[in-house]
Amino acid sequence: MKRLLGLLLLAIVSSCDPPATAGPRPEVLAALGQAKAYHHLADVYLDDGRPGEAIAALEKILEIPFPPGATDGADAVLDARARLGKLLLGVGRLDDAGRIVEEGVRGARGESFFLANLYTVAGELHEARARLPGADAAAERRRAIESYGRSIEINQRIQKQLAEGSP
Amino acid sequence: MTPDDPATPEEQARAARLAALVDGALAGSVPPPVMAAEERALLDTAAKIRAARSLSPARREAVLGTIFARRRRALVPWAVAAMAAAAALLLALRPPTRPPAPPSASALVGRIEGADAGAARARLDVLYADRLAGYRRALLDGRTR
Predict the structure, then answer these.
(1) CB contact under 8 A, B134 and A72
(2) CA–CA distance from A157 to each of A36, A116, B106, B126 (Å)?
(3) pLDDT tens digit sequence for A135-165
(4) What is the rounded CA–CA span in Å between residue A83 and residue B120?
(5) 0.90 exceeded by pTM
(6) Is A23 in contact with B138 (Cβ distance < 8 A)?
(7) What one-character-per-residue DSSP string does chain B give?
């Protein structure tokens, strides 16, 4: 009798645990792991004084086939573009940096801190172009202001959503 | 002669006479006016025993209340078991709840400052660690392939 009572109470208590969050799909996790490895590889190349190979490693992230609809993948790719853009800017390859950043901004599906960050990098690129000899500095600075403005707006919207409890 | 020896005819007759007297007294009959002292003492004792067995209404209610209280206490484990079984059945039959979605990557890393624009590796490390932990939990719970 007492044993039955104890078993029943144990069953009730174990059913009352709060549900854990849904786990990610294995294919998304694997793709994220790949991107993580390429980032670390790029770090090693940079520490070794081989920025060209670091750039190549980061470009590989853009080719990872993240599953469709995986927002984590989309955010990881946006962030990789931001890092790649900064790296290309650092080695003077502004056109390549601009292409990488523009592709990311045009292809973004939704707003996130990562998209806002990419707009920040876009703003830095336009600032760098404005300083180039013979550049249309006013136009580039105007584009920089637009990019920074977009970044600020997106950041504000995302912060507001998070404050209101939206994931 | 010992107490274990069988009763003599005289003893049996005396016992029968005393029994008749006690039965008569308990039935309300008036005892004979003349009785041996020993017989009167025995009759008085029987009457006292009979009186002690009867309970006043208050005392009767108190005794009965104790008896039924014991019975109620004896039912408590069964009542608890029945409630626990009903609760377990309700929990087993409730529709499965969908687990909540994990926090978005934006919620996880927070706003990215300008100085950290290129620090994608650190942010991905945070994201990957969180998702890996979630995957392990789901694996242990049997909620993933």
Answers:
(1) no
(2) 28, 10, 12, 22
(3) 999 999 999 999 999 999 999 999 999 998 8
(4) 6
(5) no
(6) yes
(7) --TTSPPPHHHHHHHHHHHHHHHHHHTTPPPPS---HHHHHHHHHHHHHHHHH---HHHHHHHHHHHHHHHHHHHHHHHHHHHHHHHHHHHHHSPPPPPPPPPPHHHHH-PPPGGGTT-HHHHHHHHHHHHHHHHHHHHHHT---
